[in-house]
Amino acid sequence: MKYRDTALDAVIKAARVCMAVQDQLIDVANKADRSPVTVADFAAQAIVSELLHEAFPDIPLIGEEDAQTLRETEDICTKVVSVVQQVLPHLKRDEILAAIDRGTYQGGAKGIHWTLDPIDGTKGFLRREQYAVALALIKDGEVIFGVLACPNMPHDLADPSQGTGSLFYAAKESQTFFRPLFGNKDTVVSVKEKPFRFCESVEKSHSSHSLSAQIARAAGIKEAPIRMDSQAKYALVAQGQAAIYMRMPTRADYVEKIWDHAAGWIVITRAGGVVTDIDGKELDFSCGRRLENNRGILATCGQNVHEKLLSIISQLST
């Protein structure tokens, strides 16, 4: 696939920057919705955006960030520029801000575009736990390629000594591949029903832990949930280290963002899993920047488990 090598290179470079920033003092600003954003978020988006634009100038980008906060916070802006120039020394300040702002594309049902979450799971990043650099390519409303870089994710949760730093990628016409984040040996991964356990978000504001616990009990899941931030949860299911990922809505008015799910969706589905919303509807990536036609997320290791969970969710919701 002609996009693969450029996308992998961009995401790996962004992951390196995130790791370097995480090892230093992390400057945090708050966006309009009060969610945190760091130097690494902006720098990663600038790097991925610029590298994709250089290779594919006609393909627009939906990104989580824009540069307005940097224009209003000069000290953070200066640090972002310095970090980006360590990777792309030819870029000047205004070019870096422009690269970040390139992510303001609105998307839609027709055409092709990228979607990027430069740090999915910023709170996990701040806690030095799980986060992901998540990039996907969407054509006519369908995800056709995705990559997840998870710098803090062990290759095997049961045996962390095997190494840390994981990369997953998949395309519409391929299987899902895993490699060490800074390695070059690809391994095909696939979903598994055992261990029969589920994962969910760390933040209670992101997913209803109490409802997930009820569903798990009804499904006969006895193991405690794995709680981690970001689309690393999608990767965990795709790799067969968990069977289920549930994201149960905590507010009736909340609508999921496409950058939070596009890469994870293809990584799981090409590994043999199933992803829908909690009503059993396919995720609709044709509505622009948000999943306007969906409610919550259910990702599982296969159709039988998926249908069982959907039935339980329906019963508990009535």
Can you describe what's shown?
This protein has helices at residues 4-22, 39-55, 68-72, 74-87, 93-101, 122-126, 209-219, 232-238, 262-269, 303-317; strands at residues 28-30, 36-38, 61-63, 112-120, 132-139, 142-154, 164-171, 176-180, 187-189, 198-200, 226-227, 244-247, 274-276, 297-300. It is an alpha+beta fold and 318 residues long. It is 35% helix and 22% strand.
Give me some keywords for this one.
single chain; 318 residues; alpha+beta; 5-stranded mixed β-sheet; 10 helices; 22% strand
Helix-strand pattern, N to C? HEEHEHHHEHEEEEEEHEHEHEEH
Distance between the termini: 45 Å
Number of alpha- plus pi-helical segments: 10
Query: What class do helices, strands and sheet pairing give?
Result: alpha+beta
Q: Mean of residue pLDDT?
A: 93
Q: What share of residues are in beta strands?
A: 15-25%
Give a topology summary.
Blueprint: H1 4-22, E1 28-30, E2 36-38, H2 39-55, E3 61-63, H3 68-72, H4 74-87, H5 93-101, E4 112-120, H6 122-126, E5 132-139, E6 142-154, E7 164-171, E8 176-180, E9 187-189, E10 198-200, H7 209-219, E11 226-227, H8 232-238, E12 244-247, H9 262-269, E13 274-276, E14 297-300, H10 303-317
Parallel strand pairs: 3-4, 10-11, 10-12
Antiparallel strand pairs: 1-2, 4-5, 5-6, 6-7, 7-8, 8-9, 12-14, 13-14
